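Continuing the series of single-chain predictions for the mutant panel. This is the parent chain; the variants come on the following pages.
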Amino acid sequence: MAEDDQALMERLAALEAEVKADQDAQTARKDAALQKVREQRAREQADKDELRARQAEIVTRKKRPTGEDLESNLDNVGGALQLAKKANDVKNELAKKGEKSWIKSGLASMLLGPLGWLYAGSFREAVPASVAYMVFAMIAMKLPVFLLWPVMMVALPLSGIAGVVYALSYNKHGSRQRLWGDKKKKKELAAGSGGK
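Parent structure:
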């Protein structure tokens, strides 16, 4: 039995050595995996830090103005001031009391068609055009929309332009002016002013 005990002890020692070697191998694999993860995280953190540094450099980097840039900026400021003065003059000219707003007239005429002409246009032209527009609208309600759309896309902007012209003409002459017709009056006025 001593031999059996001896063989059993040797086998137990071999098993213990095998288990220890297996544990050592597992520990070595875990350490290698942990080291690999740490290195990967360190690389990712370094990449993030480098990206942040580059972004901060781009954001904080400022171009120093040169003499030419300053002259160009002064020219731009001067031009902007002149443009603002002209715009203010135009606004003051158009904002006189008793005058019609060309913006309101243009928008009303573009949105409502000839009905918007009643704001500043000659009643001799605006009323018949408005009536014709309303009759056309009643007839057009029976037609498909896709047939009317191209017509309205051309007619309404033209009506808006006519509304602006009516308002500007009103402001210039101080009363409602006709855009069409009255050729005889224009010829008489031209002949009368030429003879004086």
